[in-house]
Structures are given as C-alpha cells and as structure tokens.
Design goal:
It is built from 10 helices and 9 strands. It is an alpha+beta fold. Strand 1 and strand 2 form a beta hairpin.
C-alpha cells in the first residue's frame, strides 16, 4: 500500500523551515486555468499529449528505454482534494495531483504553474508506480500486503526511481558508491517505507511514521534555498496522535536513518542500481526474462538473477558483479 497524502510543511527544530501555502498566490490564475483539466496523458500507442505533454513524453521515453515496449496508457490530472491519488487497471493508469501544489510559495515553477521539482521528480516517480502496477496486472497475487504491484517491492521502487531525471538519480546513487549490499536482503525484504513504524516528535509534533523517504543533499538544486542544499530532505507519512493521516516534511544535517541496515537506508538507490545493472549488462532481453520469471512466480527470491541473458550464471557471481559496478 502506498499513502497518497498532501505534503504539509511544518517548522521543525532540526531545520526551522516552513513551506508556506497561500490561496492568494500570484499563480492562482494558473491553478484556476488548469482546474478540472489534465496535466498530460500517454496514448495506447505510447505517444504523449496534453497541456504539459513534456512530462508524459519523458516518462514514456524512460519506460521504453527500460522495457523496450510502449508505455501503458494513462493520464495525469489536477484535482482539488487533499493529497495525490492514483489508480492502475489493466486498461490504463491515472495519477491525480493536488492543485494545492500549485500554490506552494518560494519555489521555482514552470510556465504551466507546476513547481519544477514536482514536475521533474515527484510526478514522474509516482506515475512510474502506477504504470508498473498496470503493467504487472497479470502477475499472480500471492501477498495481499505488498507495497504496489504483485512484484517484489524492490522492483516496484526501482521502476519508479527509473522515471526520475538523471540528475535526481545521480544524487540518489552517490551515497551507495563503493558499498557492498546484500542482494538477498534487498530483494526479499518489504519496502521499509511501509514496513517500519517509527515514532517521531519534532517541534512538538508527534506522529507514528509508517513511510519515510530520505533524499540526499543536493548542492546544485537552485530551486532550494541555500541553507537547505546541504541537508537531507525527509518526508514522514503516518498517523498523528489522534490517528489521523499526517505528513511531515523536514530537513536534517545528517541522515535520520543511520541505525538502519544499508539495504533499508538506501532501499531506493540500491533497488534502482540493481535494475540499471541488469539493463546495462543484459539489455532488453535480460529485463524481459526477469519480468517473465516474476510473472510466473512473483515471490521475493534470489534465483531469478541466475543466468539472465548477458549476466553471470550463478547468483553469487551476479551479486559480485553488481557490487563491482557500484565501485
């Protein structure tokens, strides 16, 4: 299960920053113009369209680069409800993005009113989830509590990260250079964002955290204030003291996940790196074979990595080659 909740900003002691929202924002005319309208869509042919077609063009191109087939059809729209939502069916996928995101102050934005960071990173990532769930709709369901599709959680997250721009991916994988991840632990564990239940108390705001996303510091990110470019961006999603859905966005000078295993702490980056390694070394044939093995049996296991086209014959040799690629 993924949580689709608006990112509400608060001022926190680790970094006293608030991302204010204001209904009187100068870009309101853009929000009103886009209300009840689509952002973009992907046709059944894989062709993009819509007012902000460049967003769907990028995710459709990224999908084809990974899968070597046209992206599944779908649409991204704006809506007035709190938070973003989505659905994925065999016939197509949808991603609904909150109009409130257009009213976030103090951020760089595009001519269509969308914050640049959301258009480049967040929307493609979430669209990637919906696209892959649609693609994997014929996988047998063996676990009712999986994070997204019936496929193992590492693959769900790897595909979503794949949809991000190269600059964002580079920031993610920088922190795993030279590491020695355990392939069995990474590919058989559930997504730590949905499995781990933490309690946080920041600035007097207490909540049970069920999902945590950590983005490494980004020195060249011009859309962030100078004071935040060297800090970790943390999004905590969970329940407040009254049991209501809640989201905190905060910044820290150090990673808040230092006590977790490497695989938990770097789940997003490592999952992406594993998928990218398979695509780089084995090409479309290796990706196709991997997906077919999971389509036959989506259980989280390591034998799917043995003897993929263009890759080592044993799991041990595969793991060694993947680790070497991280150097």
């Amino acid at each position: 299960m993924r949580f689709h909740i608006a990112l509400l900003a608060v001022s926190l002691p680790l970094t006293p920053v608030a991302l204010a929202r204001d209904a009187a924002h100068p870009a309101d005319h853009t929000a009103a113009h886009l209300a009840s309208r689509e952002v973009c869509h992907v046709e059944r042919t894989g062709e993009p369209g819509g007012p902000s077609a460049d967003i769907c063009a990028r995710i459709a191109a990224r999908w084809r680069a990974l899968m070597s087939v046209s992206a599944p059809p779908g649409i991204i729209t704006l809506h007035e409800r709190i938070g973003f939502d989505g659905s994925a069916q065999p016939a197509g996928w949808t991603l609904e993005w909150p109009l409130s995101d257009l009213r976030t102050r103090g951020v760089a934005r595009r001519s269509d009113g969308l914050p640049s960071y959301a258009a480049a990173m967040l929307i493609p990532h979430e669209a990637g989830h919906e696209m892959f769930i649609t693609f994997a709709s014929d996988f047998p369901h063996i676990d009712s509590v999986q994070y997204g599709s019936p496929a193992p959680d590492w693959l769900d997250e790897a595909v979503a990260v794949w949809m991000e721009p190269d600059s964002g991916i580079a920031r993610r994988v920088h922190s795993i250079a030279g590491t020695l991840p355990d392939i069995a632990r990474l590919t058989t564990m559930g997504n730590p964002a949905s499995e781990s239940m933490r309690d946080t108390s920041l600035g007097g705001h207490r909540m049970n955290v069920m999902e945590r996303t950590v983005t490494p510091p980004c020195a060249p990110c011009k859309w962030l204030p100078d004071s935040l470019r060297g800090r970790y961006r943390v999004i905590d999603v969970g329940l407040d003291a009254r049991g209501h859905p809640d989201t905190l966005v905060w910044y820290s000078v150090r990673s808040p996940a230092k006590n977790e295993t490497l695989e938990e702490r770097e789940f997003y980056a490592l999952s992406y790196s594993l998928l990218a390694f398979i695509r780089a070394r084995g090409g479309p044939a290796a990706i196709s074979e991997l997906l077919q093995r999971y389509r036959m049996n989506p259980a989280a296991r390591t034998d799917v990595f043995a003897n993929l086209p263009g890759l080592p014959k044993t799991v041990a040799a595969f793991e060694a080659a993947w680790r070497a690629s991280l150097r």
